[in-house]
Amino acid sequence: MSAYESARHYFETAASVMDLSPNMKKLLLTPEREVKVQVAMKMDNGEIATFVGYRIQHNSARGPMKGGLRYHSEVNGEEVLALASLMTWKTAVVDIPYGGAKGGITVSPKALSENELETMTRKFIDELQDVIGPNKDIPAPDMGTNAQVMAWIMNQYEKYHGFNPACVTGKPLELHGADGREEATGRGVGLLTEAMLQKLGRSLTGATIAIQGFGNVGSFAAEYLHKHGAKIVAISDVSGAKFDSNGIDVPAALAYARANGSLEGFESEKQLSNEELLALDVDVLIPAALGGVLTKENAGHVRAKFVVEAANGPVDPDADTILQKQGIVVLPDILANAGGVTVSYFEWVQNQQYFRWDLERTRAELAKTLLTSFEKMWAVATEKRIPLRTAAYLMGIGRVGRATVLAGI
Ligand code: GLU
Fold first, then answer.
1. Labelling 117: which of 11, 131, 198, 296 has CA 20 to 30 A away?
2. CB within 8 A of 181, min separation 6: which ones?
């Protein structure tokens, strides 16, 4: 099932519980603007390369649109639209004053030199600069992009519009970035995993956890969970999975991945495939890499008691139904990984105020925002006897719908 079909399915499920009118459904499903641009450039060897870039602005009923930019070989318009709509519900679930957008370029960033990456980013922003901006649509990092890319984006945008640090978030600390933004998504995953376990009378201490993906999200989640007493028995990246029944030495794995660019060669008790990691007998399974990793083919093999969606859209609806039937509780992406966009919001607030928060304040505000939303989602799910995902969508769609009606069409 495609990312678009999955996102659509989850929306429809919640819309039917809410009894949303067909007209409102159509309004909320239709993106406000879809931009598809040519990104043409000269490569280091003098040859011309042409890429396709997207920015899909799904909804601005609650504020400027917000969402990451993804550089990945699989980026396509349908997927970007699905991810843009997830951003609309995500910002609404955590109740930050934004709408949702997403963008990206169909490219394998690892195949480009640093210089080519910079040129491509600047060319892309030349095409987007009139539709983005601090009060319109604010990009941020996602797969394949990072703080350096955000710095180029800010610099390129400012060539047209003057000093404007709030035009993009996830920037380096030296360039108006926020302390705590880089760790925020993974930290949020950790905080919420802990909150969920507590709700069900469990504790993080000694809980066994498998994490698929050791990029920005997976690595910071592993760090938080390890520090707070969980036993991370497996981690993985494109090179495969590392398993250790006594718990992976997470600080050593972080240092190794930082020094070597991947986990390839990192010593562990057993080397597994990414697929085998998903089927491990653990308390919590955290897919923190690509979307669509759990499907009807492999969801039946999951032995974890909880799945925390650190990635966007890792569980497709067929898999979701299978997990539900097995009594596995799924913490949905639109809350589980909302820590990133939440601290993006804090960065934007600081940029608008020319003020800087310290890390402690950011962490405290992040915890407050996520845990308040978690409590609300839990209460809705309990009261209506619906899965956490449907409850989160109900909150998100409800808030966007009400803002739309109050503002007037
Ligand atoms: N790309 C991240 C996400 O999917 C962060 C978006 C943001 O910070 O705006 O939530």
1. 131
2. 169, 170, 340, 343, 344, 346, 347, 362
Distance from Cα 140 to the centre of ligand 1, integer Å: 6
Domains detected in the chain: 31-165 (3.40.50.10860), 184-327 (3.40.50.720)
Q: Is the pLDDT of residue 409 over 90?
A: no
**Residue 275 and residue 236: Cα distance in Å, rounded?**
10
Beta-strand ranges (E) seen in 166-291 are 208-212, 231-237, 240-243, 270-272, 284-287
Task: Report CA-CA distances (Å) from 296 to 211, 318, 336, 381.
Answer: 20, 5, 22, 24
Neighbours of 160 (CB within 10 A): 13
Report the distance separating Cα 307 and Cα 196, nearest Å.
11
**Is ligand 1 within 6 A of the CB of residue 226?**
no
Determine whether the shortest distance from the Cβ of 340 to ligand 1 is under 6 A.
yes
- Nearest Cα neighbor of 388 from 325, 350, 335 is 335
Active-site residue identified among 102, 123, 171, 242: 102
Dist. CA 205 → ligand 1 center (Å): 29
pLDDT tens track for 31-61: 999 999 999 999 999 999 999 999 999 999 9
Tell me, what's the pLDDT at 304? Answer: 98
Per the prediction, the chain carries an average pLDDT of 97
Respond yes or no: is residue 110 known to be catalytic: no
Q: How far is CA 155 from CA 109, 116, 126, 129, 298, in A?
A: 20, 16, 11, 11, 44
Residue 17 CA to residue 384 CA, distance in Å, equals 9
Specify the pLDDT at position 372.
Answer: 98
Given a contact cutoff of 8 angstroms between Cβ atoms, the answer to whether 31 and 54 are in contact is no
pLDDT of residue 200: 92
pLDDT tens digits, residue range 345-373? 999 999 999 999 999 999 999 999 999 99
Cα end-to-end span (Å), the chain: 33
Q: Is 312 in the pocket of ligand 1 (CB under 6 A)?
A: yes
Tell whether ligand 1 has an atom less than 6 A from the beta carbon of residue 169: yes
Which SS3 state, helix, strand or coil, does residue 33 take?
strand
Q: How far is the CA of 335 from the centre of ligand 1 (A)?
A: 12
Each residue's pLDDT tens digit, 114-156: 999 999 999 999 999 999 999 999 999 999 999 999 999 999 9
Atom of ligand 1 nearest to the CA of 181: 8
